[in-house]
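Hey team,

Filing this mostly as a record. A colleague (T.K.) asked me to run one chain through the structure pipeline before their review meeting, and I want the input and output archived in the tracker in case anyone asks later how it was produced. No errors, nothing strange. Just documentation.

Input sequence:
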Amino acid sequence: MKPKLTEADYAKAAKDLDVPVAAIKAFAEVESKGAGFLPDGHPVVLFERHIMYRRTKAKYGFTRADALVKQYPDIINPKAGGYGKTSEQPGRMDRAAKLIDRECALESASWGMFQVMGFNWQPLGYPSLQAFINCMYHSEGDHLDAFVRYIKTNPGVHKALKALDWPRVALGYNGPDYRANAYDTKMADAFARHSTA
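Output structure:
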């Protein structure tokens, strides 16, 4: 059983970011439905095939990336989608690592309770991609630490979070398509619930 987040963890993160505890809990709930690990102990991941395409293209060039799209469109594709179930995500990522490139695959998944993208490892201050991955396998506390690092390195998102401006938070954290998944309203609703709990 992997270590779960405690109230003390939430309180420390909230203090570090100067935001209410309910704001951290809202993120935890919306980003990963409140769990950082699957029943088998693997960290929750969401493998993004369109990010895999971008990372592969940057590393190997258009020709190689486009050829791989024709071979494995479910795990490398210019178009987002093709996700499947949460339980299927580690397998999709592992296939991309074995068939295409391990580094690109690990960087193309969002990791843990707060769904921090793997390609953020360097700006977040991890000494290596593997060090980031090791933390993601360790505990939900490490997931929370990655989230705090991410917010601190993104001033616009941090400012929006302090203001509890959920549309701006969702735009900065989830990208311009956040409305399709109603991230802003989900976070606002979760924040309201956790504020009265």
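Quick notes for T.K.: DSSP finds eleven helices and three strands in the chain. The beta strands are 45-47, 109-111, 116-117.
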